[in-house]
Design brief:
Shape: globular
Strand content: 15-25%
Order of helices and strands: EHEEHEHHEEHEEHEHHEEHEHH
Number of helices: 11
Strand order of the largest sheet: 3-2-1-4-5-7-10
CATH architecture of one domain: 3-Layer(aba) Sandwich
Radius of gyration: 19 Å
Oligomer: single chain
Largest sheet: 7 strands, parallel
CATH topology of one domain: Rossmann fold
Helix content: 25-40%
Distance between the termini: 44 Å
CATH superfamily of one domain: NAD(P)-binding Rossmann-like Domain
CATH class of one domain: Alpha Beta
Length: 313
Amino acid sequence: MAKPSVLVTGGAGYLGSIMVPELLNAGYRVTVLDNFMFRQSPLNHLCVNPDFDVQRGDARDEAVLRPLIKNADYVIPLAALVGAPLCSIDQPGAIGINRDAVVTLTRNLSKDQRILMPITNSGYGIGEKDKFCTEETPLRPISLYGRTKVEAEQAALERGNAISFRLATVFGMAPRLRLDLLVNDFVYRAVFDRAVVLFEPHFKRNFIHVRDVTRAFLHGMSNFETMRDQAYNVGLSDANLSKQELCERIKRHLPAFVFPEAPVGEDPDKRDYIVSNAKIEATGFQPAFSLDAGIQELIKGYRMIRNSLYGNV
């Protein structure tokens, strides 16, 4: 019996550098499409694996996509310009990659092919005080990044035979690291600067380890028929934290870390919400990596990394 096949667009990025090896370990054949815009090479060690293939190309290019999706049982469209700052710098690119490339996929896939769609729970925008955002909460994205990902989710779910994962802010070490994510950034500053100035430190969001993102996708693939055509929040239920609370957690591991509040100014990122992950937990999924474990992991990683190569902006 042939192994099921997966096409991962953007598979050489932060999420993909963890996900692709785990998909191979789980018995899938995996093809990666990536434009390698950050000149990264986190998948080099996989080339020896006969179940791995890789193509350099643009996920927006229909002529490139068609032959790659022809034999794919699953498609995971990780290709994206991720984060509000990068999307603001390249607005046409954000619309074209984050939304339009997904619409192109939906137009070219057969009804039997399955999509596992990553979006962001930043689509909730500004939540109501002390009220958890569930999958039924109206989506009110406040950035171009959030809007394009919400529109991509809508396209995937309307097409059907899809699962959407609304990811909390991701953290943790990966072969293709990102330093611009909040936990990764604050731990980096705590290690090297021993300080960060907080703007609007009461703003809250949810967090999830990068390896738990992969575990959620594998869980969705194993339980596709019962989870299909729905959206699921994916985060740590004990990590709905403000920036102030996050810094206090980091300080447990790095006692010299200080984080004064800025006397003037404001955070351009206005996201502020808490999230319920009860729906995916009810399917049997539980995260395996705590915030504290991720902080410890990052501290070890930053002993090796001392530059901004791994930022998205």
